[in-house]
Amino acid sequence: VLIRDNGRGFDPSTTSDGHGLSNLRERAEGLRATMDLVSTRGEGTVVTIDVPRGRRWRKRKEKKSQ
Fold first, then answer.
1. Which phi and psi (to 5°) does residue 28 adopt?
2. pTM of the entire structure?
3. How far apart are CA 7 and CA 31, in angstroms?
4. Mean pLDDT of all residues in 15-33
5. Are 31 and 51 in contact (CB under 8 A)?
6. How far apart are CA 32 and CA 36, in angstroms?
């Protein structure tokens, strides 16, 4: 999953009062996914979440054949 915006960006090393990114990190962790965030002031933000393919994500036909 790739999420990109062309907004104002932010400094990811600073802390925030919000819960959005921490919730996103928790959800990614629950899926055993990796999450990468790149943001630069004035240039926007890119969030990449890589979810490993596993039994849960296979199509039904693939499940039956195993």
1. -65, -45
2. 0.71
3. 28
4. 90
5. yes
6. 13
